[in-house]
Amino acid sequence: xxxxxxxxxxxxxxxxxxxxxxxxxxxxxxxxxxxxxxxxxxxxxxxxxxxxxxxxxxxxxxxxxxxxxxxxxxxxxxxxxxxxxxxxxxxxxxxxxxxxxxxxxxxxxxxxxxxxxxxxxxxxxxxxxxxxxxxxxxxxxxxxxxxxxxxxxxxxxxxxxxxxxxxxxxxxxxxxxxxxxxxxxxxxxxxxxxxxxxxxxxxxxxxxxxxxxxxxxxxxxxxxxxxxxxxxxxxxxxxxxxxxxxxxxxxxxxxxxxxxxxxxxxxxxxxxxxxxxxxxxxxxxxxxxxxxxxxxxxxxxxxxxxxxxxxxxxxxxxxxxxxxxxxxxxxxxxxxxxxxxxxxxxxxxxxxxxxxxxxxxxxxxxxxxxxxxxxxxxxxxxxxxxxxxxxxxxxxxxxxxxxxxxxxxxxxxxxxxxxxxxxxxxxxxxxxxxxxxxxxxxxxxxxxxxxxxxxxxxxxxxxxxxxxxxxxxxxxxxxxxxxx
Length: 484
Hints:
mainly alpha, Growth Hormone, Chain: A, 17 helices, globular, 2 domains, 484 residues, membrane, single chain
């Protein structure tokens, strides 16, 4: 096991290394499923967490982003991203194991306060490791394969996420129904399993080759300001920050809107989320191939308007009278948004890696993460502060149809509560696309040309499938005759 960066990496070493990166992604994804998201929230609620404490849990991943600056200093001092990534990932997994082990050793020791402290350190160490890992991957993965590789890695990881989430939810519900006294034990067992899988991912990282990095010169804050003053990268920061703000002003309230305003049961909301994930998984390979061919900026310009349309469409989902009509509209929205989100997230991640100079990649990527995290955090906080105001204000636009049978009211627009956030978020996202036009990316292709190619490619596939079916239909009787 070579822990030092290599001067040269052979094709065989690269192929083996990329397989390890995918395996690391799977083990880390399983860890995330078991120790965060819905299951972490459910565990905190079971432990009696207040709304403020639940908010702290949700905000921890973005509050600790500033510690990525420490990663720049460490890489600058030791010039070994593998050791830094592995060491701090190891430290990030220890709090997860502690959460799982403490109830077994000390009864009643895992309080919500202890949980918050342990997860705080877990996120700090994870952020330091993540910044170093991003810079490492930029040097390891060839630029022309960046999109296709990460789309494949994300597709496999999301498939595992959906499968594990469903299986784990079924198991937790079974324990809650048949063994309610053991519910907290089930949650802590998930943390033990997640911590163990996280340790395995550290082992995989240690076996992954690292190209020798170019030493980083200069003070950390000076390097950070260099990333901000780089004109082209600053345009990317401006676009990505406004885009993140716009989306996080609206998307966190989708579930609240569906349950409180439309009145959908939780199972329906979860099912719609799964539909979105599945459509995202199915389209990732396509976006990965197109991002390598047309550039990441082109993919964003194709997918972003589609996703913005989905956000704006949410404002109209409470209007149809029929539940079936609402569910149909929501299904279309989630199906379409899943496809668009896959392309946007992949392209946003890749374009930051691509535009960062090779010698200072960690600085640029860290700057991008910190800006996006800041705006992603303040958006829902502002939304929460404005929520009470919008719930007491309504805009209605109706058309009256008079006939012999009486007067029928046709609702065209009905804005109240969360609907305002969807419209405001959608219009801010449209505004952010104007900032995207200033970003320059090597190899970018005009949106119209890319859409024309995609449409032609889809038509060719459809014609090929139709032709194959016709051939099969024609040849089937002949084959039957011969058999007889």
